[in-house]
Amino acid sequence: MRVVFLAFACCLATQAAHTPAIESDAARAPVVVGTAHGRPGEKVRGALKVAEDADGTPIVLPIEIVSGSRPGPVVWAQACSHGDEYGGPRALQDVVRGLDPKEMSGTLVAVMIANPPAFQGLQRVNPSLDDLEDIGDAYPGKDRFATERIAAAIHAGVKGVADYFIDLHTGGDRFRQHPFVLYTTTGTVPQDRYDDLARGLGVPTLWRDTSKVFASDAMTTLAAEGVPSFLLEVGGGQPLDPADIRLQADAVRNLLRKTGVLRGAAVRLPRYAIVTGYRIVTNARGGFFDAAVKPGDRVKEGSVLGTITDVHGDVVETLRAPAGSDIVLGVGTYPAAPTGGWLLELGSGLTEAP
Prior knowledge:
Blueprint: H1 2-13, E1 32-33, E2 36-37, E3 43-52, E4 58-67, E5 70-79, H2 87-98, E6 105-111, H3 116-120, H4 146-161, E7 164-169, E8 175-184, H5 191-199, E9 205-209, H6 218-224, E10 229-235, H7 242-258, E11 272-275, E12 277-281, E13 287-291, E14 304-309, E15 315-320, E16 325-332, E17 336-337, E18 344-348, E19 351-353
Parallel strand pairs: 5-6, 5-7, 7-10, 8-9, 9-11
Antiparallel strand pairs: 1-2, 3-4, 4-6, 8-10, 8-16, 11-19, 12-18, 13-14, 13-17, 14-15, 16-18
Helix pairs in contact: 1-4, 2-7
């Protein structure tokens, strides 16, 4: 039964035969993902069934396909892989709303909610007690828990129709991220091409992963298979910041220009901050967290990052940057934390380059 379901999900994602690489764009059939059947010069909506609820109600990914009037590459953009990261869907809505298919050469596949169980539960992961898996640890997916089945369907869909992939993230409802583009050079995409594409998104900070830090993420998995893939982190916390939504939407539009789907010159900033390493800072003592830094701040070994104050009002711990720390990539926004709270993310190996 499980094998039959996975085959069905993958089949929905690839109903249109995938065009071999040797064929020209003009030879491509319209893109089809689930019930969304792309038509040149049009925007269409549909859904990709990936699982079922306990009562048999289908769990589907809401899909929009925007097909240019002229042939070209296919960009797959998705949001809300984590259910509490609401800024990504709002940015993707803005992108789709503003596209004119008649001005496009190629196709955008927009997956508005990539993890429906988590989104419906208003939390990071699928709340089912039989699941609770981070979808960032689930690729390329398998015929097992619901999150892994969703990952398998997305993986099959991207491999079936897309030339490029971008996954929109935020810090969720209790963390705020410094904007950055994450990509891994450990795959089969030529490094010079990958670096150039990453710069084209127009985000000043790049995380150039050289160690597969998220080995089972969609971005890492697809890059290993030759699909240039990016994870875009912007903002988080509540309420949503309109500037964060604009930044994410602009980055997707920049990728569409860089790949030739949209007209216009590709973005190239004068300089980029590039990090290669990553670390999480947690607390040993429980209590109230007061951050001493904000996302994007430069730090060094020993820099004070924040404090923990106990319930009596006494400071019981001072958090400091470990060796090799260069930049604050994210800061927790929740006011209290038990031992082991995910309070800060730091980048290391920082350099600046055009």
